[in-house]
Amino acid sequence: QWWDAVTASDAYRDLRLVADGDRPASIPLLPQSYADYLLEPWELWARSYAQYIAQRSGDPTMRSQIAGLRSDHPLKQWSDDDFEPIADVIDSIFRDLQWIP
């Protein structure tokens, strides 16, 4: 479910375009090799988990750091709206594991 949510996101789609060498002008320049790295499953999980913790905790410092990564390059992290379905799946996973109520 997490993989499906991630691969359905706009950020993943745009990274895939960059990695495939089909970057439209609307997507900021990013080296293909870096896009490939950002698309690795473990890297996607690490970034999604970090954003999940920042978003669900509401910690202003963590949220600011995620925003900083986005301002560095918008494809490094998901927009809040694009990320919400991913966060919902992580909630579901953690509920199934009984890590959260």
| Share in helix | 55-70%
> In angstroms, what separates the terminal alpha carbons?
19 Å
Number of helices: 6
Secondary structure class reads mainly alpha
Based on CA atoms alone, the radius of gyration comes out at: 14 Å
The unreliable regions are: none
Largest sheet: none
Strand runs, count? 0
Average pLDDT reading: 95
Q: How does the overall form come out from the CA principal axes?
A: globular
Order of helices and strands: HHHHHH
Strand content: under 5%
Your description of this structure?
The structure is a single chain. The protein has 101 residues and is mainly α. It has helices at 2-7, 10-19, 32-38, 41-57, 60-72, 80-96. Helix 2 crosses helix 3 and helix 4 packs across helix 6 (80-96). The protein is globular and about 45 Å long. The model has no long low-confidence stretch (mean pLDDT 95).
